[in-house]
Design brief:
39% strand, 317 residues, elongated
């Protein structure tokens, strides 16, 4: 009964989501969540889909059929959406966007969802579950045409259309990807100029599930250049490292400091009240400024280091 309530909650969420899209804050406003509330969104209910620390971009849907999309979230990012409160929890369905060998493809299974309670008038953080295991069952055939002739790929007498393409014809300089079912390779053929079959089997008897078969055409012959087994750990290991966080903005200029004192700024600043910033004590021979009023648009923690060059010493300032 509880699970049915969650499914019903997801269905109601999807039904009203279109009414909310005009009010959805920008994804960057996730930083405005304080103690569960969204600054400027008082009285409204939100969900903050949090994909931080995760390897893959995701799409979040309201139902298992994945027909109503709620949000697209980049790897390591987050996205806010206005929501209906749900004490019994709402089910959110996840699709992971994986790229291997330059081939992007979506992945989800029966466990790719999360149920979360959405409290009224708060901004609920909904962590996106990490993809920890994946069973790849499809076959991907990749062809790069380096020849002067066009290519097509057939199953029997039917020409197959590459993923994301409008035409079945692959011309010079193009790379195409086909998603097919696992099974015997006999019956498939690459055709030069749409009608001349090319010998491409090269001992290949079957297309194994969860594999990428990479072919290359040089204008005269077709060759199987590479066979790659899809493995989630290997895919994650091959991902580029996450971008380093940008350095903090330069602090705003100060008025002239007291005579004989130099101000040295460092990052990680926090605003304790509008335009007023504070720091913690630093080295014993340094003096801490408890508050310092500056003009800036961003909350920031300010550490102020005072270095004395003339008498009196810092202790007497």
């Amino acid at each position: 009964m509880g699970y049915m309530k969650k499914l019903l909650g997801a269905a109601v969420f999807a039904a009203v989501f279109g009414c909310f899209t005009a009010c959805v804050p920008e994804s960057g406003e996730a930083n405005r969540i304080k103690d569960g509330n969204l600054e400027g969104g008082e009285g409204k209910t939100f969900v903050n889909f949090d994909n931080s620390g995760k390897a893959f971009p995701v799409s979040v849907y309201s139902g298992s059929l994945r027909t109503v999309k709620l949000a697209d979230i980049e790897a390591g990012g987050s996205k806010l959406a206005e929501a209906l409160p749900s004490r019994d929890g709402t089910a959110f369905y996840i699709t992971y966007h994986i790229t291997a060998e330059g081939i992007p493809f979506p992945y989800y299974d029966e466990n790719s969802f999360t149920v979360y309670r959405v409290d009224e008038a708060l901004a609920a953080r909904v962590p996106v579950p990490a993809l920890e295991r994946a069973a790849f069952t499809q076959v991907y055939v990749k062809i790069t045409n380096n020849g002067d002739f066009s290519l097509t790929f057939r199953k029997g007498t039917s020409e197959l259309t590459p993923d994301g393409a409008a035409s079945t014809i692959v011309i010079n300089g193009e790379t195409a990807v086909y998603m097919i079912e696992a099974g015997p390779a006999a019956g498939y053929a690459f055709m030069k100029n749409t009608s001349i079959p090319l010998d491409f089997l090269d001992g290949l008897e079957a297309f194994e599930p969860g594999h990428i078969y990479t072919f290359a055409f040089d204008g005269a012959a077709l060759s199987l250049a590479k066979t790659t087994a899809l493995d989630l750990e290997a895919i994650i290991a091959a991902l580029p490292p996450p971008d380093a966080p940008p350095p903090p903005d330069a602090p705003p200029p100060l008025d002239a400091p007291p005579s004989g004192v130099t101000f040295v700024w460092s990052g990680n600043w926090i605003e304790i009240r509008p335009n007023t910033y504070t720091s913690s004590p630093i080295e014993p021979n340094q003096r801490t400024v408890e508050t310092l009023t500056v003009t800036t648009a961003e909350p920031r923690r300010i550490t102020v280091e005072l270095t004395c060059h003339i008498y009196p010493p810092c202790d007497n300032l």
